[in-house]
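Hi V.,

You were right to ask for the full record rather than a summary. Here it is.
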Amino acid sequence: MKNKVELGKWSEDEITDILQRSSSITDIGSRIRYLSGLFLGTPYKSATLVGDHETTELLVINFEGMDCFTFLDYVEAMRLSGDFQAFTDHLKKIRYHGDFVSYETRNHFFTDWIRFNKDTVRGHNRENRRDRNKDSDEDAQSQGRRNLLSPRNRTMQPPCHIHPIRPHR
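Predicted structure:
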């Protein structure tokens, strides 16, 4: 598997030092605050992940710019890790399910992220989630639309291709 790594202002050794320091913070909330604070000032950047239906997925680590979802991936993987290699391993497990890096196994939705990381993600009550999903599904159906984030609608569709309309002659 090929990786794409852009560590920005840090080296792998510096990240290992950061992770070892953060491991001594026993309160999870305080550890998350510490780790997420390291990214203050990091620019927002969309579409940093590489892979789609036609392009081979790469495991991307990009600390130079990130969106909200990759930010969560990084902080959660860092929270669980004591060195850079463990961070990479945890990132793979958090971002993908089935222990295989591919576009199809990427956790594209927050519901996927929680579902496939329930052994590490804390503070989620399964029954409350199920009730909320049921309620939002019923609300969506009563309004004649689908709830795209519902666990029942998690099939990934290939991207739509727009074809120009040619006039008949």
